[in-house]
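Example for tutorial group B:
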């Protein structure tokens, strides 16, 4: 397992606490790759026996994942965002799936959004999002994905892109990837509208950079409009549309400016699980 972490000292302890059974398993490598950190991410991660902590100078998630790849020879591999909580049983289930001599070479656990601490516009956005019909097997947008040795042969290294999960997902056909039925990975959603806009802008910009926007804005908005069944779902759809349009406009301005930035949700990064 490879966990890229850039200034994640507030949450890496929470993530590793959930992974303690894996840290005790001699057949599993758990690597925390601190990239360009100026906080205590590495110090916190080293408090967990069994975790291998690497530090690189570059503030780059792809560079961190590549460094993790070079530091382990174990397969399959799960790449996990530092703020995502996943049950060890889910990790084992994905690894078992990818160890089978089948066509499946890429997978992830199921995932669920936790909106408990979010503002009402954010909760409305995610209610509308979860009503959208799924199109094919989607590995991106869940905070973690895994690959077998055979699947990793599809690419030499992760390129310097914002949407690494979308890049990864596009490498495989629906027949080669799957979402394994597991306890879901916990995705803590942004708590505020501004924090949600930040990550939506980053996601949209990442798709634009890859020229792989999964659906046109109009198509997505028509799809969410089709989920309206009453006043509450109509309000949810309106919130979804508002966030989507603003994020689209912001991403265009960022891409057009030629600047590079990594928008991060700071609203959920509070100290937790540090021992």
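The residue assignment follows.
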């Amino acid at each position: 397992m490879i966990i890229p972490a850039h200034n994640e000292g507030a949450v890496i302890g929470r993530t590793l606490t959930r992974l303690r059974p894996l840290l005790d398993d001699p057949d599993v490598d758990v690597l925390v790759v601190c990239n360009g950190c100026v906080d205590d991410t590495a110090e916190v991660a080293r408090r967990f026996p069994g975790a291998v902590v690497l530090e690189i100078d570059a503030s780059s998630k792809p560079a961190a994942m590549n460094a993790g790849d070079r530091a382990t020879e174990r397969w399959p591999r799960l790449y996990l965002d530092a703020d995502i909580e996943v049950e060890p049983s889910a990790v084992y289930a994905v690894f078992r799936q990818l160890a089978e001599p089948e066509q499946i070479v890429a997978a992830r656990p199921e995932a669920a959004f936790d909106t408990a601490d979010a503002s009402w516009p954010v909760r409305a956005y995610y209610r509308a999002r979860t009503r959208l019909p799924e199109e094919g097997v989607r590995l991106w947008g869940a905070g973690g994905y895994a690959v077998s040795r055979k699947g990793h042969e599809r690419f030499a290294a992760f390129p310097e892109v914002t949407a690494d999960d979308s890049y990864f997902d596009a490498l495989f056909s629906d027949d080669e990837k799957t979402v394994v039925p597991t306890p879901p990975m916990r995705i803590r959603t942004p708590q505020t509208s501004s924090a949600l806009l930040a990550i939506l802008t980053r996601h949209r910009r990442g798709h634009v950079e890859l020229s792989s926007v999964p659906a046109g804005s109009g198509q997505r908005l028509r799809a969410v409009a089709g989920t309206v069944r009453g006043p509450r779902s109509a309000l949810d759809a309106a919130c979804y549309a508002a966030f989507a349009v603003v994020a689209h406009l912001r991403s265009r301005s960022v891409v057009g400016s030629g600047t590079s930035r990594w928008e991060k949700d700071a609203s959920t990064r509070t100290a937790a699980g540090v021992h």
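The chain is about 40% helix and 15% strand. Compare this with the pattern of hydrophobic and polar residues in the output above.
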